[in-house]
Design brief:
Blueprint (H helix, E strand, L loop, with lengths): L26 H6 L9 E3 L4 E4 L8 E8 L8 E3 L4 H10 L3 E6 L7 E5 L3 E8 L8 E6 L7 E10 L2 E11 H4 L17 E4 L2 E4 L15 E2 L12
Antiparallel strand pairs: 1-4, 2-3, 3-5, 5-6, 7-8, 8-9, 9-10, 11-12, 12-13
């Protein structure tokens, strides 16, 4: 969900200081430049996890999301500016990124690049009979658009591989009320566990219909499938 934030700026008197030559900006510098932030206003970034047998060893693992800045420091919230654009500037300025890994195991990590965490991380179960569970996620990209993509990943030869995608609209799927983001077990309007199987509606389809009765079965290829976006 994309927000617009309106915050009454504080009037602060300050003196000019010599600009540092370093091109790398700290979080404190980013906050102090261009925008005066109300330090009490922050947007929380949630950690997501999913449990399942993702590597096919017969044991249950925990898949966890980790949000950090460009230095690797964990980030659980970011300050909100006078408008959404300033929040995005801050996210890009500190190099906010999301990484997904299996907790307690030295396996491949899934790096999503510049992002503000996830909207959802859902274990689909073993959808292609390879004895490993597949996982689906929707990333929270720092942008102005509600158009997004649900992405299905599988651990193929010890490497995470994207094997299925379909379009979603954040305004339909993740339009919650209140300050606490819900934990999604499906993607409203786009992914539903219905009559014992997963069904989907692709927002990119001209005849998109988010009613569960009109959704189509989610078919997941195996790891050898050459996926084209």
């Amino acid at each position: 969900m994309k927000y617009l934030y309106f915050i009454v700026p504080l009037i602060i008197l300050f003196s000019c200081t010599k600009k540092e030559n370093s091109q790398t900006k700290t979080q404190k510098q980013i906050l102090s430049e261009n925008t005066i932030y109300n330090q009490s206003d922050y947007m929380k970034i949630d950690i997501h996890y999913a449990e399942g047998d993702f590597d096919g060893d017969g044991n249950k693992e925990k898949l966890v999301s980790f949000i950090s800045d460009s230095t690797g420091k964990a980030i659980d919230s970011i300050p909100t500016g006078n408008d959404w654009g300033e929040t995005l500037d801050y996210a890009f300025g500190i190099g906010l990124t999301t990484t997904i890994y299996i907790e307690g195991k030295k396996t491949d990590t899934l790096k999503l690049g510049t992002s503000m965490g996830l909207y959802c991380l859902i274990n689909l179960g073993d959808m292609n009979n390879d004895k490993k569970d597949e996982v689906i996620l929707v990333a929270d990209w720092p942008d102005y658009s509600n158009l997004n993509t649900a992405r299905v990943y599988s651990l193929c030869d010890n490497k995470w591989k994207e094997i299925k995608t379909f379009g979603v609209n954040e305004g339909i799927a993740f339009d919650w009320e209140g300050d606490i983001r819900p934990t999604y077990k499906d993607i409203p309007g786009f992914l539903k566990h219905y009559k014992g199987k997963w069904v989907i509606a692709d927002y990119n389809d001209e005849d998109y219909n988010g009613q569960v009765e009109n959704m189509k079965p989610l078919l997941i290829p195996n790891c050898n499938f050459s996926h084209k976006k």
